[in-house]
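During the reporting period the student researcher (J.K.) took over the structure-prediction task from the postdoctoral fellow and processed the backlog of single-chain submissions. One of the processed entries is reproduced below for the supervisory committee.
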Amino acid sequence: MPGKGMYLFMWSYQDSYRIHIQILVRSVLAILGAPEDAEVFIVGARSPDNNNHNPVCIEPEDGIWGLSLFEGLLDSVESTYRDHDAHNLFYGDDASMRDKPEWIRRDSVRKSVQKSLDAYDKKNDVTSFCGEVRNLDGYYISTVIQIPNTTFQKHPPLPFKQGAKINGHRSLIHAAIHAVLHEATEELQHPDPGRNSFYSMRKPEEIIRIAARNFMYTPGGAIEKGYMFNDLFTSLNLISSLMYEGNKGVGQLILVNPDNDAIEFLIKFEESISFREPRWVRKVLQMASTGIGIIANSQYIYGLGRLKESHDPSMQDVFIIEFIDHCLWELRCGEQAMLRSHYSEPKLPQEPFDKTTFLANYTRLFPLSTKKDGVNLWNLMLIQINQGYGSMIVVAEDAEDEALRLSKQGTRIKPVPLSEALLKSVSCIDGTILLSPDGYCHAVGIILDGEATEQCTPSRGSRYNSGIRYVQSNGPKRLAIVVSDDKTIDIIPQLRKLVSRSKIEKYLATFEASTIDNYHDSRNWLDKHRFYISAEQCARINRKIDYIEAHPKDVGVIHLCTEHFEVHPEMNLSYLID
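J.K. obtained the following structure tokens:
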């Protein structure tokens, strides 16, 4: 920001630019359903015609990335530039030939920065993504996003194994990161990048849709030699939204080269059907049944058939589109789910809730229950979710008494363990299934009562709001699992995730060691995780807050005060891991 002292200076708004990109990529990851632990920094390599005394600059200059990481960067850039393959390219227009040396230098900077980070990435178990380079005020600027490799362990990308003829992004996360980096590069071309980023850059939701469209080019590039880059993401969303004579589109579409020996045609059309005819495609989908799918590439449908059991999914030459429900579909390669689109909103396929967190919270809520009881309810929840219609299960400490009290508003039964078969049978009627913490069913079809609370909302249906009213009533502990007709899944009360002790300590140590200029990131993380902070940690944080608040502030700079930390009354060690 203007007025801030900076030794490794590239341009006036470099810190606000970096902060905005970091907020943006973390927001994108959060919406996708991935961990938000992304870091952003900027590397500037001095251009040959610049006489600045700093050959390399980093933003933030006092962050965890030292200048020593980029020792010899300019020599590496020059070497890469001299040996670049693009020198041998010839374009058909004078403008491109004129710009070619600049394009080569930009790419040489990007490759050299990426190479400089290889050892750091390996040592710290992260992956660095370097954006396209632009020349700004005498420095070639590269924006770098770093992602912990644990993110890719949780959401594995396509391995792109040797022999697999595939191009494109390895995962939706990769596509999203590249979309953010593209946005960051575009911002570098505006006057004073970082000054008005909030208004000039796209919002996270729009970037995610761009990433999904780009990622859906990957199957087409894998199965076709002359891929035409059709907008498959938009086409599939439209097809999944169409009804056929009142029926939802449910079935399988096999994306494959129609000449691939991995498929067996049962019906082959005389003339292929274009994806540009969505109603016709939807009509064909109606013919797909269990074990039979639509055979198509990214442009045309060729018939109906199936994938042979002998096919090796590691070849990555066949992708499956599973139409699950109205406006709900999923992309898979073998058994690996890659993308799920619900009402045209792309996300990473995953369990609706983390199993470890669910079991820990269940034990905490019902201390007399066993681990087996929690696992049993988890399995019942997965069955409930996959039934295809709305339902609600309520677990109550006082289930026996409540079944008697509400007997005029449902059907009271002799307690029996809720099995899969029984769940499927009784959840098809209106009302709630009432269980005790040990998994015994005491009543079915129950109409719940309770007073409205602040958590009730007119934007949700009656099933969700009745669950809120009942569970949050004063008295014995209760838990509700609500599956709405639109496939929205809620657990009431909301589950608190488990947090790593070492991660809390890492951010706390960083906050304690921070300066008045760079405390914001660690402070913001701690602020979001107030619930998990112990009394001793609160005292350490508050000492640093007092130091920051007492420090003289620059005139004209907006400063946001931080409230002192206090121990949350519900916090206990069971919320912490490792």
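The committee noted the following: The CA atoms of residues 121 and 127 lie 6 Å apart.
J.K. will present the remaining backlog at the next meeting.
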